[in-house]
Amino acid sequence: MHKCALFLLSFVLTVPAAPAAEALGSGAHELRLQHAGLPRHALVHVPAGLDPNRPVPLVLAFHGGGGHAEFMADDARYGWIGQADRAGFVVVFPNGFSRFPGGRLATWNAGDCCGAARDQGSDDVGFVRALLERLKQQWPIDGQRIFATGMSNGGMFSYRLACEMADTFRAVAAVAGTEALADAACRPTRPVPVLHIHARNDSHVQFDGGAGPDAFRDRKQVTDYLPVPETVARWVRRNRSQAEPDRDLGRPGAVCHTHAATPADSAAVRLCVTETGGHSWPGAQRGRLTKEPPSQALVAQEEIWRFFAEVSQHPR
């Protein structure tokens, strides 16, 4: 059976929280909760073979604007279930704010973006806090290895989590989504390692800033996106990273540079740029119809997990 089809067999956790070792079960689950008077949900994938008595890393993967949790859980598009199975971590796909009962066409309140979540002032940061508390009741989560990543609007929201929940998230990674908060509004309590992945020819969230020609037709749903270099520069300053980056990956179609952590209290900032792929997830087996196919110069989820695993080896 295709891994994504497992979500059709998911169940709703409606019983009182049991001890983590008893509640842990491999496979796909759906978790529902009420937050701020609204029903919210997330899909959870627990790889087979995890030790129920050993805390495991947790990755929260946030879908893009107009998407939903099931879409982000599609392994052909984003690859996170396969990555979790190979590396041995729990992956969660939260669903954003939606005006529809099924949760489709959802967005995240990342600050200046996007859509109804922003316009309605959705407390998505509060939702994430509540979701993490529920997850810790149901599975043995390693509190020192909780990570956030996302595509587009989901990447923007990951940046907001780094700003407002630096005490919780060990590192974040954004794909095709720049920071959407005013610089002064982001005040992390400690340095947070950051990885940013972006296509130079992105026609939605443009590399050099602004909403491109393929962004939402209703421009009121988005914002004048921050340039990728400015997003990186902000985090280099906040993290007190080395000012000059080192090139650590170069191959046809992609290059990565890292602003390393300094001896002082600091954190690394890494940028990977693909030449092609547009507004898509690099390495994906399937892209959007009528859109440029994803770049195959690197595999985003592999680069992200490698970054997460590396930075978590260093004390915070």
What do these coordinates show?
By secondary structure, the protein is an alpha/beta fold. Helices cover 23% and strands 22% of the residues. The chain has eight helices and ten strands. It is globular, with a radius of gyration of 18 Å.
Q: What structural class is derived from the secondary structure elements?
A: alpha/beta
Distance between termini?
Answer: 41 Å
Give the overall shape.
Answer: globular
The counted number of beta strands is: 10
DSSP helical segment count: 8
Average predicted confidence as pLDDT: 91
Q: What proportion of the residues is helical, as a percent range? A: 10-25%
Order of helices and strands: HEEEHHEHHEHEEHEEEH
- In the sheet with the most strands, the strands line up as 1-2-4-3-5-6-7-10-9-8
From the alpha-carbon coordinates, what is the Rg to the nearest angstrom? 18 Å
Low-confidence stretches: 1-22
Strand content: 15-25%
